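Two folds, back to back.
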Amino acid sequence: MTDDAELLSQYAQKGSDTAFAALVDRYLPLVYAAALRLVRGDEALAKDVAQTVFIDLARKARSLLGRELLAGWLYTSTRLAASKAVRGARRRQLREQIAVSMQERTTQPESPQDEGELKLVLDEAMSELGSDERNAVLIRFFQGKDLKDVGVALGISEDAARMRVTRALAKLQVLLKARGVTIPTVALGTALATEAVAAVPAGLAATISAAAVASAAAGGGITATLLEFMTKTKIQLGIISVIAVAVVAIPLAIQPQSRAKLREENQVLRQQVSQLAQAAAENERLSNLLAQAKSPASLSREQASELLKLRGEVGVLRRQNAELHAAQHVGKLEDQTAGADSPGSARFSLHLLADGPAEDAQQMTLSHTTRQGSTLEEVLYMQKTPLLDQTAIASACLVTNEQTGGPQIDITLAPQGASQLAKLTRENIDKRIAFFLNGQLCSSPVIRAEIASGKLQVIVPFPEEQAKQLVQRINEALIQ
């Protein structure tokens, strides 16, 4: 068994990292030099190619057992890996470099001593030699061995090795000449010894050796050997067991959790779809009932008359209920309203509406009359403490609202009241306020912007004559 075969056997069967490192140290100069030529001098790419070759050697170590020489296999693997790397990088930096090299090859005169020409075609010509002849050239010139070592490596005598090397050089000379490089046999041997040698970067052997061994272990190339090695201690066996259990258990634990979560989300979505379907059915049922109630054809003449009568009575009751609430509220607000007016004065107050029931809020009902004459009621929650009262008023006048045609009271505030109004409207944008006149809730508009003019417009929900009396009483109270 040759030295190469022994080292390969130690690594493949016993997992000896030292043996593999020895192989890397022995053949890295050959592999790196060939890779450097094939990638046109790109050192970074040559390093990648060399690492790929030795990773491939580590992964295929078992299948290579029994091979006496690795030089030929490594050289062929280097050519294949470099060719693949060049194709992958062709669209990047190497495209221009290869284009320039090709242009120089066609425009410059051929020279037997042109090292660049020899670099371009040497490995292509080497690939056409027979395996025995290629191995002889690799060992003699690429590895720098003498003829005696060549014979030992090939298992032949020194004279037979000399004849094989001579025969290989002659064939190689013919192959190079066919590619445009003419060089004498003696000069070819010298050129091969020069071209085949390249300084290996420091630390590259150790890096490639570690990367190849780790990659082969991860890829399962020597899994059995690695496990056999790690089971030498109980602690390492425990570590492997824990890792194996974790690797298996974690996905098994995550998958049920994910499925349970998906089932819950699916159930919630189904419930929402069911609720939407029920709501749609109920909406359709109510729409049908409403359409039937509004349709004259669905009711007899007497029933329609009775329905209109009932609607009128409901409207009257709602207005009476609103007036009752307003009267009750006036009694509760009398001791909270600033100023001591005469018995005949008309009270005015402005309140901020709360979002909902609260301790400092009073529930009120505001009645709205639609264009069709029906009455709608809105429940409001008014803060008990007024923001403004009648003491802030400077004057009041009655006008007609342009939109409703009903009475409207325009109120001009005194300077202090105007300042208070500007502040409270500036601080309560998009909130609603309530106007009270003579103890009745008149309106509840939304504050859209700051009111700096000191003027208010209040639409009153009672007849014009009553509105005139209110304006008169407000102005008379201001004179007193």
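---
second:
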Amino acid sequence: MNDSHEGRWAEGLVEAFIADQSMPMSDDDRHSFLTGYRLNRPRPFLFCLSSEPDILSQWRAYANDGTGVAIGFSSSLFPRQKHFPSTNAAAAFNTGLWPVIYEYSEQQAAIRSLFDRASSDICVAEGGKSEYQLLGARLTGLSPLLKNPAFREEKELRLIHTPMLMTDAMNKHSVMGTDYMIGQRVSNDQIVTHFEFTLPDPCIDVVKEVWIGPRSCLGVHDIELSLALNEYGKVVVRKSSATYR
């Protein structure tokens, strides 16, 4: 993640939203809401993409300073969900592709919309009073989707997976709500836990295009042969238009 306030950005927006709510929320209600939010924040596993294939800042940040390639996947490859991400024991409901929300007004609107729907339709206790801790838990789904507007040029989409990871007193590990194999790898001197998103076999139509970075020494024929040898079928290969050296 390239934003040092990732996750905390969304929490700050939610806190500001709740602080602005007056009646019928009391101070105790707001405390209960924020407790529910903080205790239930998901641990999302992210695969980050962009809707734009040829952005210089992306080449510099993610493609070994422009020497790599950008892979354009078919959007039909990834599942979509009608609801926001949430930790869930049902594998069919905890994986989806969502666009990141950058604009402040859109972020506020998303928080307001989810708050209103949850408080009126979902999180209502006896007597019609909202269950504010449960309501706070519901809003955690926005956390992986809200990002500082300074990053808007990325035009990011995220494949988000939120299974339930559990460890008992004997450090026995178990995972619920996933059809994907869990694993670990070393990256930048850190141990990174990940889930392997399975590609269809054969891989025809999985990759739609490949863009060669502005500082890459790779040739179009090199990429085309690699795709052919791995049975990806016909894929459009282009060179970046960025004049970055």
